[in-house]
Amino acid sequence: MPDATVANATIRPEEASHFAALAKDWWNPKGSSAMLHRLNPVRLSFVREAIDRHWDGNSTSLKPLSSKSALDVGCGAGLLCEPLARLGADMTGVDAAPENVEAAAHHCEGAGLDIRYMAGELATLGLGQFDLVTSMEVIEHVADKAAFVSQLADRLAPGGLMVLSTPNRTPQSRLLLVGAAEAVGMVPRGTHHWDDFVTPEELRELLAEASLAMGEPRGIAFSPMKGLHLSADLSLNYIVTATRI
Questions:
Q1: Domain count, the chain
Q2: What is the mean pLDDT of residues 196-225?
Q3: Does the pTM exceed 0.85?
Q4: Is the pLDDT of residue 39 over 70?
Q5: What contacts 24+ positions apart, CB below 8 Å, involve 2-6?
Q6: Is 61 inside any structural domain?
């Protein structure tokens, strides 16, 4: 059950259990998280561009997050945390499932990286603020979206940058992300619930309520020629930045 001491708990136990069951296979690029392995480079490309733009960085720098702290919420087994750490961030990952955190810690130790991982409700963990806050494919799984966005905003330091990605709630996403992808095994069954998907307009309102301004969303689209790629097409999935108003 969610922590009863949290006024607006965001963790859905059934969602945490679903992803916990995938923990041991998370780093297998041909396993149950294969789609995340394909998606991760696309998300990282957007994140890197956003970092350079936000902090007027040098796009050739190997460590653009040097001297900066970063938090990934809903980190799973660390697929995003590890490359952000390699970009120089003082990295923290938080996930609802202790099994994911255990898998993440084990993998980063083997990779020689120093990443702090924690499990539990974000509001209860006593974390400070971070220069970069990311949360990828998470908001569609939480119990209280407004509370979740508010908690993310609380963790964002003044002058910081937030990056979020999520599926869009469209007929196309219902057909492809829920119907086709789960039917053929590209995504584990039960991963997506279309009614919980968030449109860009809804996300903009949620962010505004938390005193955050949303940047222009970029779509994450698929084509046989390009595979997954950044696009103007927002119909399946999109990724955005947010900053304090």
A1: 1
A2: 96
A3: yes
A4: yes
A5: 2/121, 2/143, 3/120, 3/121, 3/124, 5/124, 6/121, 6/123, 6/124
A6: yes
